[in-house]
Amino acid sequence: MTSNWRTRITVDPKVLVGKPTVRGLRISVEHVLRALADGVPEVELLADSPDLEPADIRACLAYAAEAIANERVYQVA
């Protein structure tokens, strides 16, 4: 699934000011991730956004994982 997020996550400057969105819809990856982080069950998220599909949620998670995969945190002493 890691590479499949590219078929579901899009970036278009004309949609939500270029934020990553789900399939060009006005559903941002950030919205999905924050909802999940806040404990919103997947079934509720899907019910609230009828255009959203379970594979979209997995794509958002994969996108986030890849986005931070090479992130490095440096501690300043």
Please describe the structure with a list of short key phrases separated by commas or semicolons.
77 residues, mainly alpha, Arc Repressor Mutant, subunit A, two-stranded antiparallel ribbon, globular
Brief digest:
Helices cover 40% and strands 5% of the residues. The chain contains three helices and two strands; from the N terminus they run E-E-H-H-H.
Protein architecture, described:
With 77 residues, the chain is mainly alpha-helical. It has one domain (2-68): Arc Repressor Mutant, subunit A. Helix content is 40%, strand content 5%. It contains 3 helices and 2 strands; from the N terminus they run E-E-H-H-H. It has a two-stranded antiparallel ribbon. Helix 1 packs across helix 3 (54-68). The chain is globular, with a radius of gyration of 14 Å.
Question: Any chance you could write out the topology, listing elements then pairs?
Answer:
Elements: E1 9-10, E2 21-22, H1 29-37, H2 42-48, H3 54-68
Antiparallel strand pairs: 1-2
According to CATH, the homologous superfamily is Winged helix-like DNA-binding domain superfamily/Winged helix DNA-binding domain
Please work out how many helical segments DSSP would assign. Answer: 3
Structural class: mainly alpha
Strand content: 5-15%
- Tell me the CATH architecture: Orthogonal Bundle
The tally of structural domains comes to 1
Cα distance, first to last residue? 39 Å
Q: Looking at CATH, which topology would you report? A: Arc Repressor Mutant, subunit A
Q: Report helical residue fraction.
A: 40-55%
Q: Just give the CATH class.
A: Mainly Alpha
Mean pLDDT: 93
Tally of extended strands? 2
